[in-house]
Amino acid sequence: MSNYQVKELITEGFKTVYCHGGETNAETLIFLHGSGPGANALSNWKKALNALSSKYQVIALDLVGFGSTELPADLNMTFWEWTTLRVKQVLAIMDHYNIGKAHLVGNSMGGVISLNAVMHSPQRFDKLILMGSGGGKTSGPTPEIVRMTGFFNDPTIESFGNLIRWFMYDETVLEDDINDIIRTRYENIMRPEVRELYPKLFPKNPAEMLIPPSALRRMTNQTLLIHGYEDQFVPREGSLSLLEHIPNAELILLKQCGHWVQIEKSDRFIQLVDQFIDQRNHQLALI
């Protein structure tokens, strides 16, 4: 049984689909998924939403360009314009529920959006949890990222299955679910409108993903960086770079873990999120 509901809301002129639970709880966690092929809110955050909705209001949206959220009328946007539109999606949902300030949990591209949200409206966001986040400097795109962004150069189910498995250090943690995930996400990304749009969602210059150090050092938010040590899509150097510039940041590296910490190390991830958000209470318990 799910502890959340799937809902719809008109944001910026198009319908956003999102998961919502724990509405009566005082603090709000907003979960932002990555840009992997076929990504959406549920594929990234299902277990975390169920576990954390008993204590927090939880919201996970299908970011525009992904999942079941409608596409805007104008698709001719730069990467930065897509990013700003996704930030406005988040703010529209917050306004709908009269949420003055929320915590952000961002995975990969969701981390980039989280950091841009803080630049856009710093007064609306409190703590940041960035998991396998983009935005930090690395030595350049990995072969796995090149295969992902160029997926439609060879859009077979076999190629897609390999790509999904590469997101993890050990896909056997998903047991039989891995084949269902591959099939469902493949069906999604092969939809004609998605197939045409997906390659356009990435910047032509990978440096556009980077958050300027001048911006990072001005972010006073308490920030928890979580990274799979064996992440082959966003190398751990990216989080080390963010750690260098964000003043109030800490980093946790998890061995035998790839890009999907929330799936491969789900129990540990949920524990880390809860401890970090509820840090004051945990500190009191130690006294």
From TrEMBL:
AB hydrolase-1 domain location: 28-143
UniProt organism field: Planococcus shenhongbingii
Record-given protein name: Alpha/beta hydrolase
GO molecular function, one term: hydrolase activity
Record's keyword terms, sorted: Hydrolase
Record Pfam families: Abhydrolase_1
Residues making up the signal peptide according to the UniProt record: none
SUPFAM superfamilies the record matches: alpha/beta-Hydrolases
